[in-house]
Amino acid sequence: MALPQLIPSHSSSSLTHQPSINPYPIFKPFLKPSSLSQSRRFHRLNSLRCSASSFPDNHHTEPPKSDDVVELPIFPLPLVLFPGAILPLQIFEFRYRIMMHTLLHTDLRFGVIYSDSVTGTADVGCVGEIVKHERLVDDRFFLICKGQERFRITNVVRTKPYLVAEVNWLEDRPSGSEDLDGLANEVESYMKDVIRLSNRLNGKQEKETLDLRRNLFPTPFSFFVGSTFEGAPREQQALLELEDTATRLKREKETLRNTLNYLSAASAVKDVFPSS
Is the peptide bond preceding residue 233 cis, with omega within 30 degrees of 0? Predict the structure, then answer.
């Protein structure tokens, strides 16, 4: 289950991003400026289409406990993949078909990294693991990938025929005395209120929102929340890069609270001026 999509602030000219069908209406968020990494630009993809879908149930995957540097093939995309999220992809450009042939005979894992024409390419991304694939007669591929651990690029190994980089794994630091469960419950409460008001403003029947946490621990829940901010990839990237669960949940709570204030004002205007 996902929150309403965020209205995109911009789109990439080199990729077509097709958000998945969302059961909730679109709303306009109030987002504080995100602090994205300004790293050197990698090559751009010109013919890879992708779409993002909602976070799966009962996700709780721990990142590897290793400081070893590993090599990983990299996909720069105009979207952000979170641990536990599902990403459908269609692959038809030649160099990425080469990558798929390699991956399907090895460990089925590659790195997804956010890139756009304004901010360049980030150096923090998320591993996508191929869980289903279909190869067509024209050698195109349809893939279903699942987000796994996060990583930071430390060195570019090569750029042809596709990008390969050395990466280190990232995991959240201990949050000390922070009440993570309490924070997660607050975030869930704001999510429910945002969904309720969005439905009202879009003329949909108001009904009780189901359990959004679904027994998720605070860290994977914070990734789930980030994955619902589909129309704001720079904010998503800022959330992905944070290495503290409490800080991530607090930032998400602030975004949801600001959005709720906007929706409340819009709802009040609609009550006074029903035809507006």
Answer: no
Question: Max Cα separation, the chain?
Answer: 62
Q: pLDDT tens digits for 76-128?
A: 999 999 999 999 999 988 888 999 899 999 889 999 999 999 989 999 999 99
At position 264, the amino acid (one-letter code) is S
Mean pLDDT of 223-229: 96
- Whole-model pTM? 0.76
**Residues recorded for the chain:** 276
The two three-digit tokens of residue 222, written as one number: 């914070």
Six token digits for residue 255: 């975004």
Phi first, then psi, for residue 73 (nearest 5°) are: -70, 145
The answer to whether the beta carbons of residues 71 and 165 sit under 8 Å apart is yes
pLDDT per residue as tens digits for the range 211-220: 899 889 999 9
Please state, in angstroms and rounded to a whole number, the distance separating the CA atoms of residues 147 and 257.
Answer: 27
Cβ(143)–Cβ(132) under 8 Å?
A: yes
Cα within 13 Å of Cα(117), Cβ side: 9
* SS3 of residue 112 by DSSP: strand
Helix residue spans in 87-136 (DSSP H):
94-103
CB-CB contact of 111 with 128 (8 Å): yes
